[in-house]
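Key result, reporting period 2: structure in, sequence out.
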């Protein structure tokens, strides 16, 4: 099979969909790999590394998109890229379709088969291709939150860890999944006073038993959330509903109850965000202010640490990528129901229920799509 890896064109996106190691594995499996020149530069992988792995370097994105049967990326295809998709081509990348009707309609119009990293599952009910980026984003969230809190950036001027004689900053993490766990762990390690809210009592027990009181936990009722918002210096939104739009857990009216200069970091922004006032930003211009509260809503947070993120993502995607290349997408999805869960679009039809519900589009069963 012909695999293609174009350079990412989303602003300030430095990751790459294919590492030289993954390219080498694909070549060993008998596949042809085409990588756009400079695609790996932002992650520290020069063209020479891909050539050494057996890949061929393409001079342009047009060549990659026109030649490849399977396109491997990181971020959702941008408008210009979506125009290059064609019927029968397979796209393997993050999509986050629920809050993005324009992209969804373009993918449906293309006739391509689109498999989303973020909805591929595993036997434990996890999301193995989302998890590594959730880990990175979770660990980054307190770091960027601490930066946002600095007075020069419009924040309260609070040091999360405090100093002797001065209380630490208070951090509220909404959501105790992969992102929330890593965020709480890092924030507590910085010396902050951290509380994690979640609606799963088993999850809260797990956090308490695993981390032994490193941070506090609470049940995410509306009342407790409102109470802790008033006290918080930094709020990290870490709620995920697989494939669906993120629920709005903090309304604009609540911002006025927060401390002036408090900061929010919305890690769920790829799925529309869990603060009503959230809107996507970039690494180039990451923060903005609403009602005295500083918002950090960068839609590709892991792109800031591109090398770590690319290697972590490549480790996770490689087995699925090789299955798609070795067997073709139909047989690979037939053999692996967890990979089939990643199928979002095929031949002009939507195949993921949560996206269909969010965008009010009819959905074809993925199993039926295998036969189409």
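The corresponding designed sequence is given below.
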């Amino acid at each position: 099979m012909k695999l293609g890896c174009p350079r990412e064109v989303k602003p300030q996106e430095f990751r790459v969909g294919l590492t030289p190691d993954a390219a080498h594995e694909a070549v060993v499996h008998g596949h042809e790999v085409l990588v756009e020149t400079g695609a790996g530069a932002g992650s520290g992988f020069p063209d020479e590394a891909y050539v050494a792995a057996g890949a061929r370097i393409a001079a342009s994105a047009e060549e990659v998109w026109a030649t490849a049967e399977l396109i491997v990326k990181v971020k959702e295809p941008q408008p210009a890229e979506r125009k290059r998709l064609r019927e029968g081509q397979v796209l393997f990348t993050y999509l986050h379709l629920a809050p993005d009707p324009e992209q969804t309609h373009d993918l449906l119009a293309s006739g391509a088969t689109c498999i989303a990293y973020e909805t591929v599952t595993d036997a434990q009910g996890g999301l193995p291709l989302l998890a590594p980026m959730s880990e990175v984003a979770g660990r980054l969230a307190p770091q960027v939150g601490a930066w946002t809190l600095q007075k020069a950036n419009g924040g309260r001027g609070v040091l999360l860890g405090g100093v002797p004689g001065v209380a630490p900053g208070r951090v509220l993490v909404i959501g105790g999944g992969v992102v929330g766990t890593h965020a709480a762990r890092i924030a507590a390690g910085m010396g902050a006073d951290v509380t994690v809210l979640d609606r799963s009592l088993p999850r809260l027990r797990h956090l308490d038993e695993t981390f032994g009181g490193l941070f506090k936990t609470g049940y995410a009722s509306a009342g407790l959330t409102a109470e802790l918002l008033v006290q918080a210096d930094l709020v990290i939104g870490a709620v995920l509903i697989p494939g669906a739009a993120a629920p709005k857990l903090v309304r604009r009216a609540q911002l006025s109850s927060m401390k002036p200069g408090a900061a929010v970091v919305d890690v769920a922004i790829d799925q529309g965000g869990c603060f009503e006032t959230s809107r996507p930003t970039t690494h180039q211009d990451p923060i903005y202010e609403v009602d005295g509260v500083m918002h950090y809503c960068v839609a590709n947070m892991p792109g800031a640490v591109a090398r770590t993120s690319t290697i972590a993502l490549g480790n996770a995607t490689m087995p699925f990528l090789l299955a798609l290349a070795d067997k073709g997408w139909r047989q690979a999805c037939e053999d692996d129901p967890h990979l089939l869960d990643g199928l979002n679009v095929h031949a002009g039809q939507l195949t993921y229920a949560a996206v269909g519900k969010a965008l009010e589009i009819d959905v074809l069963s993925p199993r039926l799509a295998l036969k189409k």
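Residues 105 and 348 are 9 Å apart (CA to CA). Residues 2-119+305-369 form a domain with the Rossmann fold fold (CATH 3.40.50.720). This case is discussed further under Risks and Mitigation.
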